[in-house]
């Protein structure tokens, strides 16, 4: 009987201590549940890596194809300012949070890569290739998980993103400029992958300051063909990725 009493007392004490520890953990984990809305400004680095090709046709000679492709496929890189509206909903279990987050991001990204005069290998004539990439708006929806350190939350997220990507490529050479001008102007609604990681720190009255990094990748942003009447053409395949560092203010409701 004494053993039963002692065992019961030990179990009761262990249960009490576990409940107390769990209660303390909940108290120190902070409250990160519910809906939130906010905004952020950021510095966006955009990169495009074309995988395009020259079609020989009746105009280009085999000797120049690799040279043309190397100029056509140079990467395009630049920076821009971004502004984002951020919204989401979190649920919380002790120190862990899980939910969904979306953002709408505007930017003024526009970058041009101009080749200047490039000499053909087989003749003393030059060609020129100018390529431009633009991205002004994207919208993402990501699943999100986080861990609370009390008044500070760290999180990672992943999900789909959609964006408007514009691309232009202009070719000409000095043989007969009137007939050797090839231009592509394309605008596509591209679908890609969005990954995020960030840190949020609670202030007062539901307000919080937040810093994060968002990576968006569009493997097939643009696909198209440009040609000219003299018998040459180019097949264009272009991807686009952006790296966005943001600082924002969030309100939880």
How is this structure best described in words?
- By secondary structure, the chain is α+β, with helices and mostly antiparallel strands.
- The protein has two domains: 1-30; 33-252, Beta Barrel (Porin).
- The chain contains two helices and ten strands.
- Strands 1-3-4-6-7-8-9-10 form an eight-stranded antiparallel barrel.
- Strand 8 (182-202) and strand 9 (207-228) form a beta hairpin.
- The longest helix is centred in the N-terminal third of the chain and has 28 residues, at 2-29.
- The two termini are 55 Å apart.
How would you briefly describe this protein structure?
The chain is an alpha+beta fold and 253 residues long. The protein contains 2 helices and 10 strands.
Show the helix and strand layout:
Elements: H1 2-29, E1 34-48, E2 53-55, H2 62-72, E3 76-93, E4 96-114, E5 118-119, E6 126-148, E7 152-173, E8 182-202, E9 207-228, E10 232-252
Antiparallel strand pairs: 1-3, 1-10, 2-10, 3-4, 4-6, 5-6, 6-7, 7-8, 8-9, 9-10
